[in-house]
Known about the structure:
Elements: E1 17-19, E2 22-24, H1 30-40, H2 51-65, H3 76-84, H4 98-108, E3 120-123, H5 128-139, E4 144-148, E5 153-157, H6 160-172, E6 176-179, E7 188-193, H7 201-211, E8 215-222, E9 229-237, E10 251-252, E11 255-256, E12 258-260
Antiparallel strand pairs: 1-2, 3-5, 3-6, 4-5, 7-9, 7-12, 8-9, 10-11
Protein name: Pre-C2HC domain-containing protein
InterPro entries: Pre_C2HC_dom
Pfam families: PRE_C2HC
Amino acid sequence: MSTNNRPTTVRTVPPIKIIKNKVVGNINTNSNLQSQLESNKRSLPSSPASPSNTANSSATSATKKSKFFISPNRYSILAEDETYSTNSNDNNPIDVDTQSQGSMRSTTHTQKKIDLPPPIFVKGVKDFFELSKELAIITGPDSFSCKSTSSHLKLQLDTADNYRKIIHFLKDNDAEYHTYQLKTDKAFRVVLRNLHPSTLVSEISAAIEEIGHTVRQVTNIIHHQTKIPLPMFFVDLEIEENNSDIFDVTSILYTKIKVEEPHKR
């Protein structure tokens, strides 16, 4: 019995792939598979909304929130910064809120302190009523105030002129009082070093006036414990514009001296 030697052909069926309950015929067909996959893909979220849509949505949400809260403008800071920006080519000044500046000035403004003259302490007052009437005639009814203690009567004047008037009045009536010197009446005081203590104060005063200063008083300084005269002198000058020139003086009366400011106690 003869056998057929021809090779037998094996038929194969194209592979079938099931994708989500759908049969895909030929997986090697790229175009069909790609289209199938694209059709079955889940749709992606849409692109971000346009600026106009974002603005509308934010405005809507802001309207809803405004019922409960006061929401400041998120861009108000940028707007304020723009008002303060400068342009080198712009000659017009930048307008700033003058009302806010006025309020800042009003809060930072402090009243200027008025320097009152020193008080006067009067002793041995017999008739306060008659004294107060006399003071009111000299200075005015609202120009002074009084305060009584067990030992003296304290007078406080409002101006330096009234202070001087009351001092003259007390001196003319031989009143017992004490007070302090006015700041405006204080002299310009310096210290002269290295002058021999036997030097006459009149000679020192004349030598300084020759330089161009007006001398009020010259006093020799004495040691506070031993009471021995020291080679130092206080010189009180009248207040003038050239007072500071005294520190440039290095020699008077054949003596090399040094001019210094007095030490504060």
